[in-house]
């Protein structure tokens, strides 16, 4: 019976070794860099819109990809971004299957969030591949059109209004969680802050707070538009990232709010590079260093 239990536990042991491997660690850091590139480009495009120098590019991920493809060696840059996004997807899938390597990483909420992020980045990765294959001169279909089309399709399904409404509510909650977590500096628990100089730690904290708040506000704004689409049964209410950002300019604060949100997205992109550098990872032990009978344990710093 003991042999049967050991054989049943073996697949999990192998999965744990994969999740805590250096390959997944490198994938996480490469993926975070890819995320940083996207948010920096989206933020820059949004700043240009706020300043009145609209280049015609969408201030969303499709616009960011299009901008990257138009640069010298754009094809090579796009394929590098594909590698980064694929690495991000792999990392998030491992987190969803085996838990994160940070404190509280085994919680089902975090694992479900990792699964959602894996799907999210996989979709973006496929979009970048399509752009690279057609020459890299366009970022693909604008995200606002895609959001409205998908919303219309779901609304036509039985119970579609409920599905769209729940999705919008979830986006609002996610945005609120990101905002509160950023203000409370909870992200620092995932970083090796003890390795930073005091000045570096302050800079990283500012990037994480301001960037996280901007992402939270934008996510909540997009979620509100989706929720309104469900309540009013009107898919045109659903907004993508570009239209959500542009709607900030229609508030009493005017273009200043749009520019502030755009700068925040740039800062979040810069924070992503910092997270790639200092994010906590599993401790990689060799078999000789690992105590007998403790396979798979002690590899998750801060995990309870």
UniProtKB/TrEMBL annotation:
Signal peptide coordinates: none
InterPro entries tied to this protein: DUF1206 (IPR009597)
Domain of life of the native organism: Bacteria
Keywords assigned by UniProt, alphabetized: Membrane, Transmembrane, Transmembrane helix
Sequence ranges assigned to domain DUF1206 in this UniProt record: 30-98, 112-184, 210-279
Region annotated Disordered, chain positions: 285-304
Annotated transmembrane regions: 32-53, 73-91, 112-133, 162-183, 204-233, 253-274
One Pfam family linked to the record: DUF1206
Name the record gives this protein: Membrane protein
């Amino acid at each position: 019976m003991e042999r049967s239990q050991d054989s049943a536990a073996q697949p999990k042991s192998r999965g744990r070794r994969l999740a805590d491997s250096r390959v997944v660690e490198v994938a996480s850091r490469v993926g975070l860099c890819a995320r940083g590139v996207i948010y920096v480009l989206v933020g820059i495009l949004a700043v240009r819109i706020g300043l009145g120098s609209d280049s015609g590019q969408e201030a969303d991920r499709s616009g960011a990809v299009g901008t990257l493809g138009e640069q010298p060696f754009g094809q090579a840059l796009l394929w590098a971004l594909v590698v980064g996004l694929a690495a991000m997807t792999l990392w998030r899938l491992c987190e969803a299957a085996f838990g994160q390597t940070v404190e509280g990483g085994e919680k089902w909420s975090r694992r479900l969030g990792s699964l959602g992020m894996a799907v999210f980045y996989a979709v973006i990765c496929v979009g970048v591949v399509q752009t690279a294959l057609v020459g890299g001169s366009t970022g693909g279909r604008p995200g606002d059109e895609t959001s409205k089309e998908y919303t219309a399709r779901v609304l036509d399904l039985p119970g579609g209004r409920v599905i769209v409404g729940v999705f919008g509510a979830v986006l609002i909650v996610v945005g609120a969680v990101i905002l509160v977590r950023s203000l409370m500096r909870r992200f620092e628990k995932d970083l090796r802050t003890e390795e930073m100089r005091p000045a570096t730690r302050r800079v990283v904290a500012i990037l994480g707070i301001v960037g996280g708040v901007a992402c939270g506000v934008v996510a909540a704004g997009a979620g509100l538009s989706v929720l309104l689409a469900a309540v009013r049964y009107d898919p045109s209410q659903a907004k993508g990232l570009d239209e959500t950002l542009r709607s900030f300019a229609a508030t009493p604060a005017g273009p200043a709010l749009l520019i502030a949100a755009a700068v925040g997205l740039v800062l979040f992109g810069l924070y992503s590079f910092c997270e790639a550098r200092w994010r906590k990872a599993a401790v990689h032990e060799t078999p000789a260093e690992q105590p007998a009978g403790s396979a798979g344990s002690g590899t998750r710093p801060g995990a309870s």
